[in-house]
Amino acid sequence: MVGQFNITGALTQELIPAGSNKKVSSIWLTNIHASDAVTVDLYIEKKLTGKFYFLNSQSIANANYLFLENMNFNNRSGEFGLYIKLNAADSAVDVIIR
Q1: Which of 4, 55, 60, 68 could pair covalently with 27 via S-S, beta carbons 3.0-4.6 A apart?
Q2: Structure-derived torsion over alpha carbons of residues 57, 78, 68, 24, reported in degrees to the nearest 10
Q3: What are the sequence ranges of the domains in the chain?
Q4: Are 10 and 84 within 8 A, CB to CB?
Q5: Which candidate, 81, 42, 43, 72, places its Cα nearest to that of 60?
Q6: What is the DSSP letter of 13?
Q7: Helix, strand or coil for residue 81?
Q8: How many CB atoms lie within 10 A of CB 7?
Q9: CA-based end-to-end distance of the chain
Q10: pLDDT score recorded for residue 64
Q11: Which of 65, 12, 62 lies closest to 42, judged by CA?
Q12: Each residue's pLDDT tens digit in the chain (98 positions)?
């Protein structure tokens, strides 16, 4: 397992730093907000290269999940970092990266 995260709020958060040499095969995103849907941006970014989105403004209903498989993402040294941004200050998701 690469990591488990509890993400809250509308600030961009780094899930995997660039150069940490992690291989990602799948990502689970579970909306844990009590009543509202959450909108998720999930992307990789490299300085001077830009952002490349896996999810752009993807809505996940409350108490539901989204499973991304066959990712085949590797962030070797000097490559991309993985980032997430939620839509609202009270948004909340659990993230499991394998």
Answers
A1: 68
A2: -160
A3: 3-97
A4: no
A5: 42
A6: E
A7: strand
A8: 19
A9: 4
A10: 97
A11: 12
A12: 799 999 999 999 999 998 888 889 999 999 999 999 999 999 999 888 899 999 999 999 999 999 999 988 877 767 889 999 999 999 999 999 99
| CATH architecture assigned to 3-97 | Sandwich (2.60)
Structure tokens at 77: 């040294």
CA 80 from centre of chain: 13
What amino acid is encoded at 64 in this protein? Answer: N
3-class DSSP state of 80: coil
From the list 18, 63, 8, 5, the residue with the least C-alpha distance to 40 is 8
CA 20 to each of CA 24, 58, 77, 88: distance values in angstroms, whole numbers, following the listed order: 12, 26, 7, 29
3-state SS, 19-76, equals CCCCEEEEEEEEECCCCCCEEEEEEEEECCCEEEEEEEEEEECCCCEEEEEEEEEECC
Read off the tokens for 78: 């000097």
